[in-house]
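Appendix B. Raw example, untouched.
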Amino acid sequence: MYSSQTEASETEDEPAEKVGKREKEMPTLIDILGLCYMGMILLRLPASLGELHRWAFAEEIPYVLPLRYIPRDMKSRLPVRYLNALDMRLLALVVVAVKLYHPFDPLERYTKLLTETGCLTVDWDLWQKEQATLEAKIKGNKPFSAGSEINVSEHDVFDMTDLQVDAYLDWYEKTWIDPEEKERNYRSLPQDLLNMFPTGRLDGSRNSPVNDPTEGLRISQDAYTQKLTAVQNGLKMREVVSEAREGKRTHPVRRIGSMHACYRHMKDIPLHAKVFYEIAATVVTISLPTLVTAVYNLELKLQKWRKAQLSKKAEVSLADEVVDTVDDEEMQDMELDTSVTDDSGDSEGEQEA
């Protein structure tokens, strides 16, 4: 049963070794698939390993990122060890990289060479416009998400597309109409009346892809490709200012990565960044505040690492300067010793003369 209390209180007093051992004994996703297969064998169900693999691949059973199927309230109360921390860290790294090379502010930044990675930058106004177009296309072409058909009300019918209406009727026929009962009713009713209320497709085509994830995936891929092409065509070229030209300019030259903005709170995030963060958070099914915190903590770590590197570089540079100074002083001492020796030799020669 699901409890609203966290497991933290149950594990706070347990030794770390005991908790770690218990975690290792818990089944993984692969183990759960094996248990499902063993259960099908015991129940003598006509299913093969290939079908089990297809179900997992087509997401007919929860397998890929199964945390998506856990309610948000329940997920927030899960112990941290159950959350996919690796995916969140990788996502935070991607977000930081995007902010460094394609910042959301309007400040101009310059590259040193035309071949630098950041010589092209995203037009965020265009990106947001294409994102809105993408979402509209997916919503208009997507029949329904799995399991959402039962929540359809009479008010939703007026906003449905033709594809969604067909998908809902196909789902209704498959879910609520008993084939045997349907056959009995057919035999007891006049054929003329039955022809007025057909239950199948009039054109004889197959059912809509209400449970076919590959069709929805194809539609989504086409829409994503169109968005990607539009955004790539709209990339803006940064001005190239070499180090030789930098000193001749009257105003400071901002390089890529400079003036990096760190967003600690939701209210600090500009509009384009908020939309980007929201879409990124859906990749690993985490909340927007969680992603904001993860990115901010990562940026703090990167700042500390950069300061440590600069401090170390300054120490090495200072040590080199000290060595150079000592070498210069030694050279001056050697030159002084040589001149003193030469002067004393000349004096001895004059005395002999």
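End of appendix B.
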